[in-house]
Amino acid sequence: MRPSTLRTLKRAAELTRQNRLTEAVLIAEPVILAADTYEGDEILRWLADHVTDFTGNTHDHHNDQKEMP
Fold first, then answer.
1. How far is it, in rounded angstroms, from Cα 7 to Cα 58?
2. Considering the entire predicted model, what is its pTM?
């Protein structure tokens, strides 16, 4: 992935955490749409691997459920 694409995705994540979703989409969408197939695949993998960068939530909800007796 191009460094400029990665910087844009990281900035979009930062804006999203600040509840500035419209701005995040405005900067990320053109970069995502301009990506070729190879870079698009890299972007998808990066987004899947960095979901918590956008949510700021690092808590594992699977461990919240108590075991049933």
1. 21
2. 0.76
